[in-house]
Structure formats: structure tokens, C-alpha cells
Amino acid sequence: MQIVFGPILSRRFGVSLGIDLSPYTKQCNFDCVYCELEAKKPMDTQTQIAPLEVILESIQHALRTHTDIDVLTFTANGEPTLYPHLEKLILQVKELLKEYPNIKTLILSNGSRFHAQKNALNHFDIVKFSLDSVVTKNFKRVDKPSKTLDLVTIKQGIKNFSKQYGGELVAEVLIVANMNDDIESNRENASFLREVDIKRVDISTIDRPSSHRVYPVSNEKLYELSTLYEGLNVCVVTRKNDAINVTQQDLSETEILELLKRRPLTHVDCEILLTKESVNRLENMCAIGQIKIKNIAGVSFYCV
Q1: Residue 36 backbone phi and psi in degrees, to 5
Q2: Beta bridge partners of 27
Q3: Which of 72, 100, 123, 278 has the most CB atoms around its CB within 10 Å?
Q4: Treating both helix axes as pointing N-terminal to C-terminal, what angle do 253-262 and 276-287 enclose, rounded to 10 degrees?
Q5: Would you call the peptide bond into 7 cis, given omega within 30 degrees of 0 as the criterion?
Q6: pLDDT value of residue 127
Q7: Across-strand partners of 15?
Q8: Is the pLDDT of residue 133 over 80?
Q9: What is the model's pTM?
């Protein structure tokens, strides 16, 4: 049984040490088509529960070895908010981390149990949730949720949680070819996320072998869809082995300002979307204070 894994370097969150809250087997209330684990019928509760003391002991031991990490990432072979002792666990972990003030806590959730676990989630520094589609037919196709789950209730739970959460809330939309890569689905996602107090939205696609026979979209498609999320801090997570062939824009200072008003860009975005001359203009504007760099849950954005 392996509870702690890593550290790994995450482009979005820095150096991360993972904590698996379902180390025995996959236990999830979704059966997402893109999941790297075996396909399995969704379940609403954990039937094999790792003892709280064992998890804490594993974390304590790992922290003695790995002190130069940025985040402790709570995840699972499934959905971590199904872990029944989550609030007790995070409270005790916070006590441990008083010796390591630079380490943040992060939980990776599918967003389905924000109402049930709001007290526990409030103690995490960063909460990241999945929102693959707010269109019911696409949600069911991509995430294959438990029949007890209702999308309207999930959305309300996310919205309510965002209003009282004091940490950094991050959404992720994972795009699957011919399932949720349409304009309607992503326009609806963006509309909903503008009503939620999120710091950032990550747009990604399949990059590893999946449990179902499904396919990724191209990096160009990710960037095309990202334009629908205007007004939000968008991080496009590109596939490493997929070349990016987009026409780079040569923008004036005024056009750069207008672009950043609509959508802040990461450094990687700028290198992909803008000509070298435009990037130089942007950096000069940053140097004289016309543009600022803002760190949002581990990712730096150029903002007006």
C-alpha cells in the first residue's frame, strides 16, 4: 500500500508530493472516460478505508525527507472527498505543516461533493475541481457519474462553496474529442464559471492512456476553445508531443492591453500566440508598470 508518492514537478503547482486517500483500489463516484485507472462502476462511499493514523504517519515520514516541496497534493485512486475522515486529516496535517510554512495544501476533486465536504475543503489552501461540461448529456458521456448524482446540485454546491471559501479555487476542463469539444458545451462552461469565484481555469486534454477508447484534441483546438472563456484567468495545458501550429499575432501596445483585458495570458501562452516583437513589447510594458505579473495558484499571468 503506497500512500505518499513523488515528488513530481507540476507546471501548474510546482513541486508536488502526492497523498493517495484510496491506496487499496479505485473508489470513485465517477467513471470518467479519460481516467488512467481501470474502468469501474461508480460508488458513493469508500468501502476500503485507509486508517487516519497510517496516512498521517506516512505524511510525517515523507516530510522529513522532502522539505523542499511547494504543495502537498491530496488525491486518490478515485475521488478524495469520499474519504470519510477528510476534515480530521486536513486539520492534523495543518498542524504538521506549521514546521513547514512554505508548503501549501492542494486537493484534486471532481467537484461532486462540495456541499457534503465544505468544512474539510475550507482548510485546504488550493482546491481544484473538474468541470468537463455543464451540459447534462456531455457530463454523463464524459464523466459517467453515479446515478445518485445530479448536475444541478453539483453546480449549486460549487457555486455556494466558492462564495465562502477563502483559498484559491481552480477549475479544470478536460476536453475529449467528439464528446465535449463543441462550442455550446464550452460556452456554457464559461458562463457558469463566471458566476463562480474561481482564481483560474485550466483547459487540457488527454495525455496518457485512458480506461476507455477515447481521443484527445489538438493543442490548436485547446487554444481555439480557450477564447470562449473570456474574462477568466485561463491556463491552456498543452500536450507535449503535439506541435502547436498557430499563426502568431503581431500586436501593438494598445492591442496587447485590449487582449489582456479580455483574457490574461501566461508566459507560455505569449510565446505561442505572439510574435517575438510583441513579446518584447509586452515585457517592456511590464517593466514600466503598464502590465503586472500575478501569481494565481502557482501559475504566473500577465494582467492589466
Answers
A1: -80, -15
A2: 78
A3: 72
A4: 80
A5: yes
A6: 97
A7: 9
A8: yes
A9: 0.88
Helix (H, G, I), strand (E, B) or coil at 114: coil
With pLDDT > 70 as the criterion, what percentage of the chain qualifies?
A: 97
Whose cell is 470519510? That residue is 84
Instruction: Spell out the residues 6+ positions from residue 197 whose beta carbon is closer than 8 angstroms to its own.
Output: 162, 163, 165, 169
Task: Confirm if 260 and 303 have CB atoms less than 8 A apart.
Answer: yes
pLDDT digits (tens, 9 = 90+) for 180-198: 999 999 999 999 999 999 9
In whole angstroms, what is the distance from residue 29 CA to residue 45 CA?
A: 8
Helix ranges, 21-85 (H): 52-65
- Residues 45 and 27: their CA atoms lie apart, in Å, by 8
Give 205's strand partners.
Answer: 175
Strand pairing partners for 297? none
Burial 102-129 (b: 16+ CB within 10 A, else e): ebbbbbbbbbbbbeebbebbebbbbbbb
Give Cα 250 to chain centroid, integer Å.
Answer: 31
Residue 85 pairs in a beta bridge with none
Other CB atoms within a 10 A radius of the CB of residue 247 amount to 7
Please give the average per-residue pLDDT across 162-168, as a whole number.
95
Tally of residues, the chain: 304
Q: How far apart are CA 74 and CA 18, in angstroms?
A: 6
C-alpha span between 74 and 105 (Å, rounded)? 8
Which cell is 174 given?
A: 478536460
Contacts of 235 (CB under 8 A, 6+ apart): 12, 200, 201, 202, 203, 266, 299
> CB neighbours of 43 closer than 8 A, spacing ≥ 6?
27, 28, 29, 82, 146
Instruction: Provide the CA 160 distance to its chain's centre, in angstroms.
Output: 18
DSSP single-letter state for residue 74: E
Using CA atoms, how far apart are residues 13 and 138, in angstroms rounded to an integer? 28
